[in-house]
Amino acid sequence: MSEKKTGVAQAPGKTLIQVSSIYYIMMGALATFSAIMMFNSRFGNTLAFFWLFDAAAFLLIGILGVRHRGSLAHAKRLRNLGVLAIIWELFSPVTVSGNVVQIFNFSVDINAATLALYFMPIIYFIGARQNVVAADPVYYGFRALEKGKWGKADRLFQQGLDTNPEDAKAYIGKLCVELRSNRAEALLNHGATLHNYESYQKALQFAGENDRATWERYALTPEAQL
């Protein structure tokens, strides 16, 4: 039995991550330049330090995104970083000070640059979230099962099989979709009829000892299960 691949075969969020990461690197460079120009100017050093904090955050988010390796662990780190990026955009010193100035001047300037500033971390987060799902589609397939999202679950299990055609749990997941079972344990209700399904036969074929013993018990009669 071949080992399960842990990388992302096709990371659907990769493009979103790359685009938003390039944006963050550009913004980091611009913020650094702005901070340098502000030092010893009439704006004072405090605002310059605010911009340096922004620059550091932008560059960190951008560089980590560009260097995305496709592993599950790294995808989860980027997802968490996306959440922090959203929080940072809302509450960073530059954002807060800028909003305060606009409020006191009774002017709110909403343009393409402002919209990009607020939407780009959301795009970054969505891309990272998609990569997390792509890195472990079978796990998220079972989560979709629990919510009764049969179509989504089936697509995720198939995605797992595309990466590893011998993933026994993905076959059990597809069997659950066929029988509209929200979890594998509910297959107990179908007893010996499970042998009629190709997904069940494939699951037993590729399963390890412990999983095979558990799944074979599902196909026993109710009396034999006791």
Question: Which helices and strands appear, and what pairs or packs with what?
Answer:
Elements (H helix, E strand, L loop, with lengths): L13 H25 L6 H22 L5 H20 L1 H12 L7 H24 L1 H10 L3 H14 L4 H11 L19 H9 L2 H10 L3 H4 L1
Characteristics of this structure?
226 residues; mainly alpha; 2 domains; 71% helix; disordered N terminus
In short:
By secondary structure, the protein is mainly alpha-helical.
Question: What do these coordinates show?
Answer:
With 226 residues, the chain is mostly helical. It has 2 domains: 14-135, no CATH class; 137-225, no CATH class. The chain contains 11 helices and no strands. It has helices at 14-38, 45-66, 72-91, 93-104, 112-135, 137-146, 150-163, 168-178, 198-206, 209-218, 222-225. The model is unreliable at 1-10, 99-104 and 106-111 (pLDDT under 50).
Largest sheet, if any? none
Computed Rg: 25 Å
Helix content range of the residues, please?
over 70%
**SSE order:** HHHHHHHHHHH
Give the DSSP E fraction (strand runs of 2 or more residues): under 5%
Helix and strand content put the structural class at: mainly alpha
Count of helical regions = 11
Report the oligomer: single chain
| Shape call | rod-shaped
Ends apart, CA distance between termini: 31 Å
Compute the number of structural domains: 2
Low-pLDDT segments: 1-10, 99-104, 106-111
Q: Overall mean pLDDT score? A: 77
Task: Tell me how many strands there are.
Answer: 0
